[in-house]
Amino acid sequence: MQKFAKYFSWFVITLYFVLGIYVLVSPRFSYLSKEVKTIFAIFLFLYGGFRIARLWSKNRERMGE
Prior knowledge:
Elements lengths: L1 H24 L8 H31 L1
């Protein structure tokens, strides 16, 4: 079960980064200003980075036990 959770966590992290890129380059969000799209994409990138850091620290704690 832990292996599934690990892979799912990596999937979700990847999804945040892909969604951030999609918001930046997709014509689907053309109704938003460039600044709003950039801010939202940066938020998604930062949250993805936060999740990577959290996953990394959890793995380090498990290895230390």
